[in-house]
């Protein structure tokens, strides 16, 4: 038999779905090296490799066969060749800019465990897509807002969510798009560094975000009476501010967010919340020039910095805090615990806090490879984000389910676990 690669699903899967990988037609107990390659839209190459030994029948199923030491990972890791992908140039993070096209994953099977690998025995390609068939992508230019709305297949109305990314700016759509695949109407909202929005993170006006909330509340395809908010990093504290001051928010989920306003002045009507102070002396830079900024922010419980603490006790919504316990961007667990204390001190419901040991700052949808370090727009140099690749991957899989269950429960009234689709 000629060796061949078998994928399931065969040729195309959603990026956040598991992918079964097997090789058939090898010799009994033959040693091989498997290598995955993926090019992002900027032409950057991400690769992972693993060493395996085929079974007595010449078959190799990654769900049953552990990887041997010496590759990107070892042990029984059916999805290891995806979560272990690493950039060939340092400080690159895998992101998807155009959700309408898939990533193309290439798998090669080489003879032996040598460096460099031996003869090429088999290869195959697989598409990792973002848009489920029937999901509609609607560019939104309404009033001042720049956004993209993703609507699931069917007639609706659907539970609505506004999705915010962090200090990188622009209009990332991939998380909103993947979430819409599960029956949510999701608005990916740009708030700076895009079109005619401010070029820099200096001052934000909550009225801009209020326009987005009202757009969703009035949309015929969005199920009321309230909507959800999902934010990571800087997007997290913006979501807390929205929930604290704006009407119509029912559920707010934060991924490694801050309960203090960070990085820019926040204004709403006659209210001004200053940004949390930064002490540059607390930034540690290693020999490679990579910064560790986890201690750079001041404590929002002390001195004048308490003015930066967002009054989340004003919010009329439920909160979910997703926390990577190895977040090196800032002290996410501390922020979640202090937010919880503040809510309970004001007689509000205790938020859900889900902590993940070994997870870093960028907790993305499942199977995005962990980004250990990359450029930080505000710091102006590469920073370490924290995390251990396998634990981080497992956190992403679980957090994705937690976020969907949270929104399903609070936006539809349906208990979690009834169905993946609404």
TrEMBL record:
<feature type="active site" description="Charge relay system">
    <location>
        <position position="327"/>
    </location>
</feature>
<feature type="domain" description="Acyl-CoA thioester hydrolase/bile acid-CoA amino acid N-acetyltransferase">
    <location>
        <begin position="16"/>
        <end position="142"/>
    </location>
</feature>
<dbReference type="GO" id="GO:0047617">
    <property type="term" value="F:fatty acyl-CoA hydrolase activity"/>
</dbReference>
<feature type="active site" description="Charge relay system">
    <location>
        <position position="361"/>
    </location>
</feature>
<dbReference type="Pfam" id="PF04775">
    <property type="entry name" value="Bile_Hydr_Trans"/>
</dbReference>
<dbReference type="InterPro" id="IPR029058">
    <property type="entry name" value="AB_hydrolase_fold"/>
</dbReference>
<feature type="domain" description="BAAT/Acyl-CoA thioester hydrolase C-terminal">
    <location>
        <begin position="205"/>
        <end position="412"/>
    </location>
</feature>
<dbReference type="Pfam" id="PF08840">
    <property type="entry name" value="BAAT_C"/>
</dbReference>
<feature type="active site" description="Charge relay system">
    <location>
        <position position="233"/>
    </location>
</feature>
<dbReference type="InterPro" id="IPR014940">
    <property type="entry name" value="BAAT_C"/>
</dbReference>
<keyword id="KW-0443">Lipid metabolism</keyword>
<comment type="similarity">
    <text>Belongs to the C/M/P thioester hydrolase family.</text>
</comment>
<dbReference type="InterPro" id="IPR006862">
    <property type="entry name" value="Thio_Ohase/aa_AcTrfase"/>
</dbReference>
<protein>
    <submittedName>
        <fullName>Acyl-coenzyme A thioesterase 1</fullName>
    </submittedName>
</protein>
<keyword id="KW-0276">Fatty acid metabolism</keyword>
<dbReference type="GO" id="GO:0006637">
    <property type="term" value="P:acyl-CoA metabolic process"/>
</dbReference>
<dbReference type="InterPro" id="IPR042490">
    <property type="entry name" value="Thio_Ohase/BAAT_N"/>
</dbReference>
<dbReference type="GO" id="GO:0006631">
    <property type="term" value="P:fatty acid metabolic process"/>
</dbReference>
<dbReference type="InterPro" id="IPR016662">
    <property type="entry name" value="Acyl-CoA_thioEstase_long-chain"/>
</dbReference>
């Amino acid at each position: 038999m000629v060796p061949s690669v078998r994928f399931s699903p065969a040729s195309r899967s959603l990026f956040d779905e598991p992918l079964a990988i097997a090789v058939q037609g090898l010799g009994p107990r033959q040693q091989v090296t498997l290598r995955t390659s993926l090019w992002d839209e900027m032409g950057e190459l991400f690769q992972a490799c693993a060493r395996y030994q085929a079974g007595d029948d010449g078959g190799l199923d990654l769900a049953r066969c552990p990887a041997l030491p010496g590759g990107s990972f070892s042990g029984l890791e059916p999805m290891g060749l995806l979560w272990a992908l690493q950039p060939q140039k340092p400080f690159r993070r895998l992101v998807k800019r155009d959700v309408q096209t898939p990533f193309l994953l290439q798998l090669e099977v080489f003879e032996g465990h040598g460096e460099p690998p031996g003869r090429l025995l088999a290869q195959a390609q697989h598409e990792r897509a973002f848009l489920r068939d029937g999901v509609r992508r609607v560019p939104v230019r309404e009033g001042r807002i720049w956004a993209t709305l993703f609507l699931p297949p069917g007639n609706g109305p659907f539970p609505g969510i506004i999705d915010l990314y962090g200090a990188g700016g622009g209009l990332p759509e991939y998380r909103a798009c993947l979430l819409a695949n599960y029956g949510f109407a999701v608005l990916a909202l740009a708030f700076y560094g895009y079109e005619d929005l401010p070029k820099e993170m200096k001052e934000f006006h909550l009225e801009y975000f209020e326009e987005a909330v009202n757009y969703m509340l009035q949309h015929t395809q969005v199920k009321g009476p309230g909507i959800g908010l999902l934010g990571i990093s800087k997007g997290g504290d913006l979501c807390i501010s929205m929930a604290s001051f704006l009407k119509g928010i029912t559920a707010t989920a934060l991924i490694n967010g801050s309960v203090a306003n960070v990085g820019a002045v926040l204004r709403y009507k006659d209210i001004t919340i200053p940004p949390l102070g930064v002490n540059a002396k607390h930034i540690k830079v290693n020999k490679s020039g990579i910064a560790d900024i986890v201690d750079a922010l001041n404590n929002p419980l002390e001195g004048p910095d308490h003015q930066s603490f967002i009054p989340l006790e004003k919010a009329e919504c439920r909160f979910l805090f997703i926390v990577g316990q190895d977040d090196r961007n800032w002290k996410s667990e501390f922020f979640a615990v202090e937010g919880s204390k503040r809510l309970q001190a004001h007689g509000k419901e205790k938020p859900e806090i889900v902590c993940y040991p070994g997870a870093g700052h960028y907790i993305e949808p499942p199977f995005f490879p962990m980004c250990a370090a990359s450029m930080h727009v505000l710091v102006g140099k590469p920073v370490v984000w924290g995390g251990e690749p396998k634990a981080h991957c497992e956190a992403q899989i679980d957090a994705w389910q937690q976020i969907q269950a949270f929104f399903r429960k609070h936006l539809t009234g349906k208990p979690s676990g009834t169905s993946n689709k609404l």
